[in-house]
């Protein structure tokens, strides 16, 4: 489905203008990508790709073809920050503990997916609709596991895919778990692309919807990314009560003869499912 061309900007900076000086992080790499950041990633990926192999300065320079001064600087910063370990005897480099800590966030997603699958299966049995679990990454929600309905008409989606969080019920639940200030920071300078006539088209509209989500404890998506699909979602919380993920039920609009009753049945199943997942984490 091709997105519409209508776009609106996120919240303005302190002077009321949305410009390059006040904009948030760049939306995509490209002409403005930072060469040093690319070199850092190339360096880490190379060292990590060989498992336990240690790399000398000469080895790294030969593989990456970087200027000596640049490579020295990158290695010094990564070692100081704990992303690389330097062996003082043979002056070789290995992946450090800070990189491991970053990787633990991925391990959480794997653990969550494993735990969630059991309870999604039961939810699917209860309603025979499609259930999905997502986590938040920046301003996108990323699907980490799902259980599909076996009905002929059903939502088709893929684990590992991502969608703009402002276009989905899952995403709105995840954004509502942040503070107002955190949401504003993430969307500052970003454009709101309208994918369907129902898509949230501005930051102010999103902010209003998130206030409702926080008050009622769930979010809805009336065909805001894919026309003809209704979605309702609730948060999955950790022991401290923070939203760490969200679970949703997606239903083709053609099966919404009684929208209110369908939503209430879905919410009952979703809340049971979310509570069970939370307890198992």
What does this structure look like?
The protein is an alpha+beta fold. It has 2 domains: 61 residues, Arc Repressor Mutant, subunit A; 178 residues, GAF domain (Beta-Lactamase), CATH 3.30.450.40. The chain contains 8 helices and 11 strands. A 6-stranded antiparallel β-sheet has the order 7-6-5-11-10-9. A hairpin with a 2-residue loop joins β5 and β6. α4 crosses α8 and α5 packs across α7. The longest helix has 31 residues. The relative contact order is 0.13. The N terminus is likely disordered. One of its GO terms (biological process) is glycerol metabolic process. It comes from Nocardioides marmoriginsengisoli.
Features:
281 residues; alpha+beta; Arc Repressor Mutant, subunit A; Beta-Lactamase; 2 domains; 6-stranded antiparallel beta sheet; 3-stranded antiparallel beta sheet; 8 helices
CATH top level assignment of the largest domain: Alpha Beta
> In the CATH classification, which architecture of the largest domain applies?
2-Layer Sandwich
Largest sheet: 6 strands, antiparallel
Shape: elongated
Low-confidence stretches: 1-6, 12-32
Structural class determined from secondary elements? alpha+beta
Strand content range: 15-25%
Instruction: Report mean pLDDT, rounded to a whole number.
Output: 86
CATH topological fold name of the largest domain: Beta-Lactamase
Q: N-to-C SSE series?
A: EHEHHEEHEEEHHEHEEEH
Pfam families: HTH_IclR (PF09339), IclR_C (PF01614)
GO biological process, one term: negative regulation of DNA-templated transcription
Protein name: Glycerol operon regulatory protein
Domain HTH iclR-type: 34-97
């Amino acid at each position: 489905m091709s997105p519409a061309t209508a776009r609106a900007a996120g919240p303005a900076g302190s002077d009321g203008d949305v410009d390059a000086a006040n904009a948030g992080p760049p939306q995509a790499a490209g002409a403005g990508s930072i060469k040093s950041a690319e070199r850092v990633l190339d360096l880490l990926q190379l060292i990590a790709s060989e498992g336990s192999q240690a790399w000398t300065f000469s080895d790294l320079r030969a593989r990456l073809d970087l200027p000596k001064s640049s490579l020295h600087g990158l290695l010094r910063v990564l070692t100081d920050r704990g992303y690389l370990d330097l062996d003082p005897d043979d002056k070789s480099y290995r992946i450090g503990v800070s990189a491991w800590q970053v990787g633990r966030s991925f391990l959480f997603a794997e653990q969550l997916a494993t735990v969630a699958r059991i309870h999604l299966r039961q939810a699917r049995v209860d309603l025979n609709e499609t259930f999905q679990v997502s986590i938040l990454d920046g301003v996108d929600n990323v699907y980490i596991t799902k259980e599909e309905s076996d009905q002929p008409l059903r939502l088709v989606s893929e684990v590992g895919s991502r969608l703009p969080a402002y276009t989905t019920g899952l995403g709105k639940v995840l954004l509502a778990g942040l503070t107002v200030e955190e949401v504003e920071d993430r969307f500052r300078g970003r454009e709101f692309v309208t994918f369907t006539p129902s898509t949230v088209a501005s930051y102010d509209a999103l902010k209003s919807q998130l206030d409702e989500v926080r008050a009622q404890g769930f979010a809805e998506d009336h065909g805001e990314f894919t026309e003809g699909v209704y979605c309702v979602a609730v948060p999955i919380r950790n022991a401290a009560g923070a939203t760490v993920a969200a679970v949703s039920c997606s239903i083709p609009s053609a099966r919404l003869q009684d929208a209110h009753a369908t939503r209430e049945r879905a919410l009952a199943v979703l809340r049971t499912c979310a509570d069970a997942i939370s307890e198992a984490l």
